[in-house]
């Protein structure tokens, strides 16, 4: 009896295994189909643009100038006159400048710059201001030797007037003492233009046609 039932048990067992395999295969197939047939969703990401940070307004700082327009003037020769005459231009100096510094700035501009107005100069190029002193007696100038070189009597009178009027521009009545290389100026030029020290604007007008 036992031998006759053995083939049936084996067949029954195989049937169960086959059913399990078929069921497993079906479940696997269904799962695969579910995965492959379901549309892939991209996450709904919303792009958020950050609000721009307002820029701080730029503060434009105006350059603060320490220069002021002084009462000193630089005197040039006027080209519009048939006689000796002058044209004055303003001088800018530091706010803290004293009288000596103001006059020094004016004279250095006279000796080193060209006029920014229709005018000319009779002072030889290369003339230097060696020293300047202002006291109760007047203005004392010491010029380099170049000041006395070249030119006729009209040129000599013109350059002398330019120096005198510029040096006395803060006070028209100020006497001016002029030295060249440390020696008082007594004559000017080859024609021997006599210089009475100190010189003033009044003296210049009396001796030269204005």
Describe this structure in words.
There is one protein chain. With 210 residues, the protein is α+β, with helices and mostly antiparallel strands. The protein has a domain at 67-207. Helices cover 34% and strands 21% of the residues. It is built from four helices and eight strands. The strands form three sheets. A four-stranded mixed β-sheet has the order 3-4-5-6, with helices on one face. A two-stranded antiparallel sheet has the order 1-2. The protein has a two-stranded antiparallel ribbon with strand order 7-8. It is globular, with a radius of gyration of 52 Å. Residues 5-10, 19-32 and 34-46 have low confidence and may be disordered.
User: Could you give a short account of the major beta sheet?
Assistant: 4 strands, mixed
Poorly predicted segments: 5-10, 19-32, 34-46
Identify the overall geometry: globular
Q: How much helix is in the residues?
A: 25-40%
**Head-to-tail CA distance between termini:** 164 Å
User: Residue-averaged pLDDT, rounded?
Assistant: 77
**Count of DSSP-assigned helices:** 4
Strand content: 15-25%
Following the backbone from N to C, one meets helices and strands in this order, namely HEEHEEHEEEEH
* Rg (CA only): 52 Å
Q: Which class do the helix and strand fractions yield?
A: alpha+beta
Taking strands numbered 1, 2, ... along the chain, how are they ordered across the largest sheet? 3-4-5-6
